[in-house]
Amino acid sequence: xxEIKKFVCNMLSENTFVVxxxxxxxxxxxxxxxxxxxxxxxxxxxxxxxxxxxxxxxxHGHLDHNFGNKFIHDTYGILPEVCADxxxxxxxxxxxxxxxxxxxxxxxxxxxxxxxxRDGDIITFGTHSLKVIQTPGHSxxxxxxxxxxxxxxxxxxxxxRFGVGRTDLDGGNMQDLDNSLHNKVAKMPWNTIIxxxxxxxxxxxxxxxxxxxxGSLGIY
Length: 220
Hints:
Metallo-beta-lactamase, Chain A, 27% strand, 22% helix, 12 strands, alpha/beta
């Protein structure tokens, strides 16, 4: 069984996850830690639980999901891993604080990407694995990390409870998002628990009945 710990981070209330199992290996997903107290909370949890971080996984290349990359690299020696189609966003990470949040003179240097993965890749830790499901729309390289063994998924900004991520940022495309929702998300098992990049958890079943962006399926 996996253990999932959520930390709500930064000025955009982004969800950072630490996911571990009985082996005490873990992955960190979307480390958005910006404020010192957020970094301290994540580090304290990992140390208190005796965890060993193996991967720093990124659902997409937007700033709020990457604020903590340097902290994680400095502390645990691991680099971010992200979909190859978001390479252009990762390469512009240093520009994003001012462009998107009007933060001038942002001094913290983001670390390089350690690995670019693609749709269908498998990421392992402990006795578990996460399958990469590429879901372009919010960004070209947006992905969902799916633990098929336990039907838990981390959706970044592709899917929220009763909503989806915006498509008006660099590389966003509503038609691509619609295709991802109908051809990828809607085909996931309905009992899958979704842990989104912002807001509350949900399930595929709940979204199939209540999310207006999945309404064209004629489910509700």
